[in-house]
Design brief:
The structure is a homodimer of 323-residue chains.
Chain A: H1 9-17, E1 24-30, E2 37-43, E3 46-52, H2 62-74, E4 92-94, E5 97-103, E6 108-109, H3 115-131, H4 145-153, H5 166-180, E7 187-190, E8 199-202, E9 205-209, E10 216-219, H6 220-231, H7 241-254, H8 259-286, H9 299-310
Antiparallel strand pairs in A: 1-2, 2-3, 3-5, 4-5, 6-8, 7-10, 8-9
Helix pairs in contact in A: 3-6, 3-7, 4-5, 4-8, 5-8, 6-7, 6-8, 8-9
Chain lengths: 323, 323
């Protein structure tokens, strides 16, 4: 949560003037998103989100993200839609940063998801996967299996500062994943970061998905595995199979999982847990003490990984056997 | 700029439900205000600001601030107005903090004020002083002359870490102020912190004043001196007499300054510069390196103080002589 780039009122007004949305009525930096700076800008036409892309986002990827949001919105998914300026551009520059204006989405994110929320997110994820099919651009997942060991190598000698033995655990897990990672499953556009803070609800109905800044082309079922990690564990790190069942049922009602995808779930879930363990551990070690961002505990994902390592069968996630 | 207290969706929804404003459509932590946590909450009735009062605010003072905003709004001043819940209360509790909901004010604050903005803020300050007259509650200024030396004593041995000789400069200035501080000028409700970020404009017209959390009873002309410091210096720390004249003309058009107030301006301006120098120096030394708040440079106020020390006559601020 941070505003990395301060935008002066005159700069902002002249930037927004290019969109033909009327005068700026107010703008406030909002404490959401750890990668970029976001302002809630209200004009005569209503509220919008203005995003300034900060250094952590590869600038070459921004056109992909914006085009994807446009594609998904056109396909009927409720997500922020880039606004185009009078020249038809969806990407500009403000305060020395690439900047885009997107529509504002009503809704709040659920801090303690219940089973019905898990069902809804499963369904929305499947709709996202289907909607992504017609999208013509491609982005490699910058955090896929092949990237995990190089990332680990950048901080492996300091992992024991987080927890004794953590380095050895990661090392052994990487060896398993590198040997047994599922191959040849269906690929397509994945969100790759569909955590509760990226899913809005209104009156307990899912109202939209946000934050497509990790979206990429990768194994669709891996995205399901990310959601099992993100939505179905309790605060004591136990896996809630009722939530898992609801999420998978919601998903498969829209896009059935193949038998290959089903049996791959335990390994994909291990991989997803390790991916978040790695980035959180890296951030834990490398976030300067004076950063504006609160660090997230990597060990939450070690606990999840331990669960997945003990899973014997995809039924342990609550998936219904094919009748 | 910070969100010190995270509020969960369920807590927030049940808190807002007590106000009869319809369901919460969205809420975002906003990166404004260094003392409190602020959320922009939108319900079916429109946007509101939710403030959670953090430790730096003396809780006993909150009813004063809320009653003052209600009084000023009733008196025709455009400022956030506390919303009362179904039980008629304007102060509740949320996430373990005292919390209040106030109306949302359109407008943006001006990063580089021009002369016309200074004129408008002078006029608005005078209107605030007049509107405060009928207010029945009283709050001592917690940062008046008598408080400056005790505050200085808490960090005087570390001032030279900010700038060599700073401690001696403050010491000498305090001696002058303690000897020559103007007495017996008209008192009343003052804002005490009317910096550009607390004044909103729409289309270059002043649309409202915010942040009354330093408001108190004190010398009215001291509030004018604060504004001269806050609005009329250029980025190179030179005093812009055109802006000073505009601010004073705007003020006196609504509330004339007595001859005693006019001649006191140089000393009041020195005091105001020292007050902000002291709190910024204290914060500079005491803000932990991992704080979510960016520190403000105290030396900006040393530069202003130097200007005021050299002022021979109130005409140097641009005040018109009484005809």
């Amino acid at each position: 949560m941070a505003v990395y780039t301060e935008v002066a009122d005159e700069e902002l007004q002249s930037f927004i003037a290019g969109y033909g949305l009327g005068p700026v009525m107010s703008y406030k930096g909002i404490a959401e998103g750890v990668e970029n700076t976001n302002y809630l800008v209200t004009t005569a036409k209503g509220p919008f989100i203005l995003t300034l892309y900060e250094k952590r986002v590869a600038l070459g990827d921004v056109p992909f993200f914006l085009a994807l949001m446009e594609h998904l919105a056109r396909s009927g998914l409720n997500c922020p839609t880039p606004v185009r300026d009078a020249q038809g551009r969806n990407l500009g520059e403000l305060a020395g940063r690439p900047a885009a204006l997107v529509t504002f989405l009503d809704g709040v994110w659920i801090r303690r998801p219940r089973t019905e929320h898990c069902a809804a997110v499963g369904e929305a994820l499947a709709r996202l996967h289907l909607a992504g099919k017609g999208f013509g651009m491609h982005r490699r997942n910058a955090l896929r299996l092949e990237d995990w060991r190089p990332l680990f190598d950048r901080f492996r000698d300091r992992t024991d500062a987080i927890a004794p033995g953590l380095g050895a655990t990661i090392d052994a897990e990487l060896a398993v994943l590198e040997r047994d990672w599922p191959q040849n499953l269906e690929t397509g556009i994945i969100h790759a970061d569909l955590f509760p803070d990226n899913v809005f609800f209104l009156d307990n109905k899912l109202s939209g998905l946000i934050d497509f800044y990790f979206a990429c082309n990768d194994t669709l079922a891996y995205d399901v595995a990310v959601c099992l990690n993100a939505w179905c564990f309790e605060p004591d790190y136990s896996f809630n199979i009722t939530k898992g069942r609801a999420l998978l049922k919601g998903y498969t009602a829209v896009r059935p999982l193949s038998s290959g995808e089903r049996s791959a779930l335990p390994m994909l879930a291990r991989g997803a847990a390790l991916r978040f363990l790695l980035t959180r551990a890296y951030d834990w070690i490398n976030t300067p003490a004076d950063a504006l961002v609160r660090r997230k505990d990597p060990l939450e994902y070690l606990r999840r990984l331990r669960f997945h390592q003990a899973v014997a069968h995809e039924r342990d996630y609550g998936i219904e056997d094919a009748a």
